[in-house]
Structures are given as C-alpha cells and as structure tokens.
Amino acid sequence: MTTPTTRILTVLLALGLTTAAAQTDATKLTLASAVSRALAGGPDVTTARANLQKAQANLRAVRADPTSIITTLTQAEQDNAAAAVTLDGTKLNVAQTVIGQYLAAYEANGRIDLNSAQAALDRRNLQIAQARLAAKVATQLDVNRAQTSLNSDTQELADAQAQLPVLKSQLARSLGLPTGTALTLADPPAPPKLDASLATLQAGLEKRLPSLSQASNGLSLAALQVKLADNDYTPTRTLEDARTAQANAQRGLDDAVKAAGTGVRDAYRAVQNAQEGVDIAHQQRTNAQTTLSQARARLKAGTAAAVEVQQAEVQAAQSDFAVTQASDGLWKALAALGAASGVDVTGLAK
C-alpha cells in the first residue's frame, strides 16, 4: 500500500535524481562555438553593444534637434563612430581571451593524460630498480632516484588535475555561463594560414583600433575648431590656441599610429615564429613515432624489453603534446595579431 509519506519520498527522490542528472550534463564546446557564445552574450561585448546603441540614440536625437550646433553634431557623430569601433575591438579582445582560456583548459586536460603515462612509467622503473637492488645489480641510490622521479611526476599530475577545473571555471565566466557549469572541450581545429600581408594589416589602423580612432576623432574636432576660429570676428589668440591644439593632436595621432604599427609588426613576427614552431614540432613527432615503431619491432624480435617500448610510448605522447602546444601557440599568436591590428585573422570573431 502506498502512503502519502511514501509518495512524497518518491517525488523528492525523483527530483533529486533529475537535479543530479542535470548537474552531470556538460556543456559541449568547440573553439569556434566558445568564441561565438562569448561574442553573442559575454558581459564585455554586451556592454560595448549597449554603449553603441546609446551613442546611436544620442546621434539620432542630435540630428533631429534643429537647434544643434555643428560642434555638438560632430561630437555625437564621433561618439557613434567610436562606439562602433570599440565594439569591434572588444570582440577581437574577447576572442583573444576566450581562445587563450579554451586552449589553456584543453592543454591542462592533455597534460593530465601525459603525466599519468609518465607516472606509470616511473612506477615501472621503480619496480625494476627495486628488483635490481634485490638482485644486487643496482644500489639504493638507483631506487631513490626512481622514487624521486615518481614523486615529482605524481605531484605534477596532481597539480594538473587541480588546475583543470579552475581553468574551465574561468572560461565559463567569460562565456557568461552559470557558476559550476561543467564543460566538455572538443579538440581545436588546425589554425588557419595567415594570408594577410603585414602592410595590409598596418594600413588604416586609425579606423579600426579604438585608441587610434579616438585620437583621429580628436584631430578632426581640433581641425573643426581651427576652421570655426579662422575668421575676422574671432580673437587671434583663440585661433592660435586652436592651431596649437590641432598640431598637438596631429603629433599625438602620428605617435600612436607609429606605436600601433610596431605592435602589429611584432605580432606578425610572432605568428611567423609560431608557425615555424608548429613545423618543428611535427618533425619531432615524426621522429618519435619512428623511434616507437623501432622499439616495438625490437620487442617483437626479442632484442628489447617491454619497458623500453613503454619509454618510447611516453616520448611519443610527449611529442604529440608538443604539437598540441605549438598549434595552440599559433592560435594565440593569431588572436593577438587580430587584437593588435583590428582584423580578425583567426576566422572566429565573426
């Protein structure tokens, strides 16, 4: 017989199981979807988008007001343009942040796998050292060294395991996801090839970078002030001050453009270096795979021990992880170049 108390307990149990199931459901992400989610609803982009809407509304109001003077209209137009540039720049900065956070979490997961394999090899080496000591063909120092290596790699494994949830939590916050959201990260795709030339990325920076756009707007406003003061009814001193302000604004813009151009050049070179690093990592992985194949062949022929194959397997895993790190480094370099140039060269910040 089912009593009211039994029915209540049944309902509570069902609710508890539903909640537990919901908590175990992980949000599955790719690198592209993570960036898209951040650009669609992340806090920084949301704020920049709201500021643009506010500037657009103010510009419409100023244009509709027949009493608006030219300086007021110019300022409203510049604020609107600056807000649009800021939104685009914010998207690139957010993309850079999310790409970095995604890859950091992904690498941490790979580091756990690698450290687990290394610790397993260390345990086997320790067993061998202990057996050799018992057979009096090794010393206690050999055993101590094997134990130290195991302790070190075990600690690195524990550190990586502790770091992973922290990195995922940081990524979740950037995406605007609730605290405690579980994330499952797919393998990142291969980074795109950089097709844009350095000259192309350096051209027109004052129209794409928020800081340069602001300086350019300041120069335009200063030029307008000179134009308005250049007449026979404005004091000469006012005109001179306006020209001085214009000259200062021009120098400030020139210096800022030069510095930004240098930043783009450095970021461009970093991408080239990262690409070379990927090529080298792939070559080293090929060498490690060849060594592993040879070790397995020797084991099959009876001329190598199983531990030698295990060692080659760990080295191959290390080379695989090095390729991952190099590829991730290229992604990060591309994202940094995009933020520096105001041009999305990752193909993700759409």
Automatic annotation (TrEMBL):
SUPFAM superfamilies in the cross-refs: Outer membrane efflux proteins (OEP)
Cellular component per GO, a single term: efflux pump complex
Gene3D superfamilies named among the record's database cross-references: Outer membrane efflux proteins (OEP)
Subcellular location field: Cell outer membrane
Signal sequence, start to end: 1-22
GO MF, one example: porin activity
Transmembrane region(s): none
Entry annotated with the keyword Transmembrane: yes
Keywords, sorted A to Z: Cell outer membrane, Membrane, Signal, Transmembrane, Transmembrane beta strand
Name the record gives this protein: TolC family protein
Lineage: Bacteria, Thermotogati, Deinococcota, Deinococci, Deinococcales
